[in-house]
Amino acid sequence: MFDMFGMMGKIKEAQAKMKEAQEKLKDITVTAESGAGLVKATVNGQRQLLKIEIDESIMNVSDREMVNDLVVAAVNNAMLTAGERAQEELRKHTEGLIPNIPGLDLGSFGL
Question: Can you tell me which residues the record assigns to a coiled coil (predicted)?
């Protein structure tokens, strides 16, 4: 027989673990670079941009478009990596609580 109360308890436990894991995501930091290290972007596991570092050698470059492209590439790389690490962290914290449902994307939980 289906245990409704047991299932509700599991759901509440999973929600609490998910919230705890999401709070810890701000402690994950990822730095990615572009242009062989000329531009570096640091983001956290909540996909918040924390820092941009631009090498002085390109600060006087007349090609602003190139600098803009390097910044965008570094930020996008950092965001992608941070998202992957955040999903790993959420999986680790909710392992065994959320059933392995094909197509379940933890990204739908705010990542």
Answer: 4-31
This prediction's pTM: 0.71
Strands (E), 3-111: 29-34, 39-44, 49-54
Please report, for residues 3, 56, 83, 108, the alpha-carbon distance to residue 34 in angstroms, rounded to integers and kept in the order given. 53, 14, 18, 29
Query: CB-based contacts of 75: which residues, under 8 Å, 6+ apart?
Result: 32, 41, 43, 49, 52
Fold (topology level) of 25-96: Ybab; Chain: A; (3.30.1310)
CB 75 within 8 A of CB 43: yes
pLDDT digits (tens, 9 = 90+) for 55-91: 999 988 788 899 999 999 999 999 999 999 998 888 8
Q: Burial level of 59, CB count in 10 A (0-12/13-18/19+)? A: exposed
Domain ranges of the chain: 25-96
Q: How far is CA 64 from the centre of its chain?
A: 28
